[in-house]
From TrEMBL, chain A:
It comes from Antarctobacter heliothermus. Residues 2-155 form the Heme NO-binding domain. This is Haem-NO-binding. It comes from the Bacteria. InterPro entries: H-NOX_domain_sf (IPR038158), Heme_NO-bd (IPR011644), NO_sig/Golgi_transp_ligand-bd (IPR024096). The lineage of its organism: Bacteria, Pseudomonadati, Pseudomonadota, Alphaproteobacteria, Rhodobacterales. GO terms for molecular function: heme binding.
UniProtKB/TrEMBL annotation, chain B:
GO terms for molecular function: catalytic activity. SUPFAM superfamilies: Nucleotide cyclase. It comes from the Bacteria. It comes from Antarctobacter heliothermus. CDD domains: GGDEF. The lineage of its organism: Bacteria, Pseudomonadati, Pseudomonadota, Alphaproteobacteria, Rhodobacterales. InterPro entries: DGC-Regulatory_Protein, GGDEF_dom, HNOB_dom_associated_sf, Nucleotide_cyclase, Rev_trsase/Diguanyl_cyclase. It holds the Pfam family GGDEF. This is Diguanylate cyclase (GGDEF) domain-containing protein. Residues 186-319 form the GGDEF domain.
Length: 199, 332
């Protein structure tokens, strides 16, 4: 399991619920060290132990936690770097949706050994889309629901999201874009304003 | 060019220019309007741009001669961002030029507040910006990991019980061992060993030769002592050996003699012969020890007696010093 995924989960918990809650989850998951390094690899079972402990400590089903992770990745200030990277995908929400097929490849360009499940968008017309989320990372479909909801806000679009299970760990998300310019949206300049490190 | 309406260029080459046979700009792409404060249409191309590679260009005639080759140019006013370009003659005396920011795309985007729509949809500029941000984020994460790992390494070294050069135990290990003997009350003896002539080796043949000698000495010690004895490099060219449950003077003398003899075997370093010897001081417990430091001090005093007596020998500590009389020492 890539450290970046586990680290993301850690900072999500710390930024949302505080370090004490993270400490409780780390104990619950029986971690050797209560912190993940984003550039190291960990045994695969760490992930499920972590999710199980988080369900216990937060008293929430895993699906809801994953969705919150997705929202966090786009909307929290500590995750601004990732939100910017996602915004490079397109000038509006529709173009962004069409860029999702490339997301696993884009991710690999940045971090060569980070493999994300396949994504495939189908355009059914009338601003209705389906997104097939491949298997390989449990919960990734729910994370994508959170990401898409937050990205719609980011672009100022109004979209409805729903999900159904697919074959063998696959998941199908249904996206209905009600309006592409519903609200102002957040600012995005191509040039990173610091000119230095981002992240 | 008449086959294609010129407006097509605005979408697929937003950084293009059409030149008249006189060298005046007839049409400029939309992104060029963002990077120049002056109006481009109607102006002479070479008055707005300075072409400096492959060579300086001063006339339309010279400009047309660059056809098909990469040229480098910059705006004469404003930020003067460097640009890359290629010129194709239009067959009627004029030319089409397409420009690109090339590697300077990062600063151009910042300086002119460019957006995605300022680039052709097929342009890789946006991908390049994405990659730069993604890679610097990944690099930051790697760098901070490296910094933490380095900190952990230093910490681990500080907590280590091994001397990294010789593989023997270090002073921290010695303290732990002495503490253990104090607690157990078991008899033990200490040998304090200091190399003779080591400084000369270091000074004349260099530190690498000195290090080789230290490793040789460490090997000798490991060979000569029993498995449970502990050989320690306490610093520089000073060593200490702790012999658990061994207090027989005859046996210790034998070990000391053998150590000196083996240490004196020449070491060849880089074709040069390094020769050192050793002076040894020995202290033996007479009963349970309250303060191991006392025994260390006794071994130290015996060592100095060996040194004073002419080096390359060993001495037992035989009692506390009295007045001005040197420490009473049993000779070998």
């Amino acid at each position: 399991m890539h450290g970046l995924i586990l680290r993301t989960f850690q900072v999500f918990i710390e930024d949302t619920y505080g370090p004490k809650t993270w400490g409780d989850i780390a104990v619950g998951a029986d971690l050797d060290l209560p912190a993940f390094e984003p550039m190291l690899n960990y045994p695969p079972e760490t992930y499920s132990a972590l999710i199980g402990a988080a369900e216990q400590v937060l008293g929430k089903p895993a699906e809801a936690i994953w969705e919150d992770v997705g929202t966090y990745l786009v909307s929290h200030p500590n995750s601004e770097g990732l939100r910017r990277l996602l915004r490079f995908g397109g000038v509006d929400f529709i173009e962004f949706l069409h860029s999702l097929d490339d997301l696993p490849d884009r991710t690999r360009l940045a971090v060569a050994d980070l493999v994300l499940p396949e994504l495939e968008l189908t355009d059914s017309g009338n601003l209705q889309f389906g997104l097939r989320v491949g298997d390989g990372l449990p919960g990734f479909g729910y994370v994508m629901i959170g990401v898409l909801r937050a990205m719609a806000d980011d672009y100022g679009a109004l979209a409805l999201l729903d999900t159904e299970g697919g074959h063998r760990g696959e998941q199908i998300l249904m996206i209905t874009v009600i309006e592409t310019a519903y609200a102002e949206g957040r600012e995005f300049e191509l040039a990173a304003n610091t000119g230095g490190s981002e992240g | 060019m008449s086959a294609l309406p010129e407006e097509i260029l605005h979408l697929i080459c937003p950084l293009h220019l059409l030149l008249d046979p006189t060298g005046h700009i007839r049409q400029a792409g939309p992104t060029l309007h963002k990077i120049s404060r002056e109006r481009m249409e109607g102006a002479r191309f070479l008055e707005i741009f300075e072409v400096f590679r492959p060579r300086a260009v001063t006339s339309m005639e010279q400009l047309l001669q660059t056809e098909g080759r990469k040229i480098r140019l910059r705006l004469r006013s404003g930020v003067r961002t460097p640009l890359y370009g290629v010129l194709v003659s239009d067959g009627q005396g004029g030319a089409v030029i397409n420009l690109s920011f090339g590697i300077h795309v990062l600063s151009a985007v910042r300086d002119y507040a460019l957006t995605s729509s300022d680039f052709a949809p097929t342009d890789l500029a946006i991908e390049m910006l994405y990659l730069v941000e993604a890679k610097s984020a990944a690099m930051d994460a790697s760098r901070s990991l490296n910094t933490r790992l380095q900190g952990a390494m230093v910490e681990a070294e500080e907590r280590a019980f091994t001397d990294t050069l010789t593989g023997l135990s270090n002073r921290r290990a010695l303290d732990t061992v002495l503490e253990r003997f104090k607690r157990s009350g078991n008899p033990f003896s200490l040998m304090h060993i200091d190399l003779d002539h080591f400084k000369q080796v270091n000074d004349t043949l260099g530190h690498a030769a000195g290090d080789q000698v230290l490793r040789h000495v460490a090997r000798v010690m490991t060979d000569v002592v029993r498995q449970d004895d502990i050989a320690v490099r306490v610093g520089g060219d000073e060593f200490m050996i702790v012999f658990g449950k061994l207090v027989l003077p005859d046996r210790l003398s034998e070990i000391a003699e053998r150590l000196i003899r083996r240490i004196e075997e020449p070491v060849i370093y880089d074709g040069q012969t390094c020769e050192v010897s050793a002076s040894i001081g020995i202290a033996v417990t007479a009963g349970p020890v309250d303060d191991p430091a006392e025994l260390v001090e006794q071994a130290d005093m015996a060592l100095y007696a060996s040194k004073r007596a002419g080096r390359a020998q060993y001495r037992f500590f035989a009692g506390p010093p009295e007045g001005d009389i040197p420490a009473q020492l049993a000779s070998k």
